[in-house]
Amino acid sequence: MDYFRTLRPLFTISQHWIRPRYCSNVAKSSVTSRERKFKSHISSGPNFQDFLKGVSVPKTPAADGQDCDTHSYLSEELHMGNSRKVYFETYGCQMNVSDTEIAWSILQRKGYQRTADLSEADVVLLVTCSIRDKAEQTIWNRLQQLTAMKKRRLKTRTPMKIGILGCMAERLKVEILEREKLVDVLAGPDAYRDLPRLLTVAEGGQQASNVLLSLEETYADVMPVQHAPQGHSAFVSIMRGCDNMCSYCIVPFTRGRERSRPVSSILEEVRMLSDQGVKEVTLLGQNVNSYRDTSEEQFCGSDLTQLSRGFKTVYRTKQGGLRFSDLLDRVSCIDPDMRIRFTSPHPKDFPDEVLHLIAERRNICQQIHLPAQSGSSKILKAMRRGYTREAYLDLVRNIKTIIPEVSLSSDFISGFCGETEDDHQQTLSLIREVGYNVGFLFAYSMRKKTHAFHRLQDDVPAEVKQRRLEECISVFREEAAKVNAALVGSTELVLVEGESKRSAKDLCGRTDGNVKVIFPKEDVAVQPEDSDMAPVNAGDYVLVKISSANSQSLRGRAISHSSLGDRAKHYETVQTAV
Ligand code: SAH
Ligand code: SF4
Ligand code: F3S
Q: Where is the MTTase N-terminal domain (predicted)?
């Protein structure tokens, strides 16, 4: 059913327009009726840009038309960083980690420098999250500290500028600038190209903001600068925004409509990472398996597989183009020794072709994040997830049939509107039935603007939410401990991340199923059954014999160096023998 069309459009396209003032304060940026009239008059005539040369025009088409000082007439030279030092602090999900690299890439091109030392920063940028109230409280507290630091710095040397980027900038817009007078810059997730200009305005002593959402911004041409690739792993953003409108979730409001980055741009980034020696890439998006690159004409396969299995979608799905399975196929062909993971998929978009590809392609990890959110069909309906408990469990069975070795992880919310003890028990039983090895569990936090905020009652008391959450965590741990214990005695191919945090004598890495493995740091055979020994470094693949397990990790001993190719050969030999 196409619910989305019955809703008021969230984001409508508006045109940029010129404000006859050099550096206007954001508090003055709300659109008056006179300005609206003026805008409608000029929209049919030539644009102000037509009369100027060398002006910078934000490329992004605006999507909600609010709260943006365009200042497009500031010249390009004024947007230069002049070696000013930028310090980033990133909160929230992996999308923000990836966005930090995009924002940094844009600033680096303009001559900014990056620093890891807050005390020498000229510009401090917080990349923020709004998913739960607690996430926002963390930022408010941090802002208090930073503004106190900024006040102290005013007396000593060049003033420090503070910028709020990401989802909280988008959700709260000018409220932040009004509440925290010392914040200089506000940039929503689709406005990072505009950062150099915003910082220039801020340098002139004015607050500056751009929180326009876009229908098409994917930063496809901005190669993110991987600042500190961790253990030879990198995140590659493949899409932005989300159209799912789960009733509890703020993301569609902070990140806007779903759009996919073109395949060619993704492949280029993955090739570049492979050349740099990156061994593991995680494809990122809020809803990765609904990926669709419609810039490619090809149409691949049927779209109706999942919908006929008890899953429905609230929006009109796009047709044609290259889909997630095509992308996964192409990405996994780039480097047979590079592991490919993806997160987050939505249970509604798991056609068998994706599952078969995961089962067949040795470098696509047999690990699926399958966010359930609840085990009760009644609550799933209130959450607008588009599936029932039964449809979810059928999907789990199908996944386990096609990929018998699969590792599953999930997200759950405790204490959603109307959740009874019986609903909660159903969630506990679903966690037991599936047997995940990793879980992300949260107490429900009401977010303004969402469907739940307008239509449902946040009626589960805080202490009940907390108690249910703790019960979910303890069942999760029990099940994860069982799943991990089943690996004791097996030999796992581990990608080494580096030294273990607990002891410099140990190394740590991850299995194909994304379970952490700790093992002693010692030289091992260069390949299985070889007598030559070599040290083990971050980015190496090693075979580790597992000796013990708990709910969080495995312990074992490395036997030899290895590679994903070796693993493929190993499996082929075993299969032929069978
Ligand atoms: N697109 C991803 C989720 C991104 S948000 C997905 O659908 O899997 C990550 C998780 O935060 C969600 O899966 C959900 O479990 C949790 N979450 C989202 N909104 C929440 C809220 N209002 N209160 C508590 N948890 C929430
Ligand atoms: Fe939020 Fe649902 Fe979109 Fe995930 S799929 S980001 S939970 S609206
Ligand atoms: Fe948070 Fe925005 Fe990610 S709200 S979870 S940073 S998409």
A: 84-204
